[in-house]
Task: inverse folding
């Protein structure tokens, strides 16, 4: 994975401060992905291999491509959700105001 931290890199010139990137709890980033500086990847989010991440990623999101786009959600176990339910572990999720939350069991 490649992380960038300077939008305008120049030889022999350093910025006053570098961009800060946040990778939250249990997020997964695929091989050969590029993460542009200053973004946040949400908890349990999954980034597909070779993706170029240019925007913040919400928790549980499944993103891939160049630029990375969201193609669904993943469970905490890593399986893609079907109708907000995990087909592998049967965990249920609920989408409220564009935020996905795991339902209590």
Result:
């Amino acid at each position: 994975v490649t992380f960038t931290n300077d939008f305008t890199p120049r030889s022999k010139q350093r910025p006053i401060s570098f961009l800060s990137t946040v990778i939250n709890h249990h997020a997964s980033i695929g091989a050969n992905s590029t993460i542009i500086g200053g973004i946040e990847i949400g908890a349990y989010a999954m980034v597909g291999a070779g993706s170029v991440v240019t925007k913040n990623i919400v928790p549980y999101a499944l993103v891939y491509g160049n630029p990375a786009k969201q193609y669904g959600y993943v469970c905490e176990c890593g399986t893609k959700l079907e109708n907000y339910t995990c087909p592998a572990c049967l965990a249920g999720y609920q989408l409220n105001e564009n935020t996905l939350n795991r339902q209590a069991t």
Observations:
- The CA atoms of residues 83 and 99 lie 15 Å apart.
- The chain is about 0% helix and 30% strand.
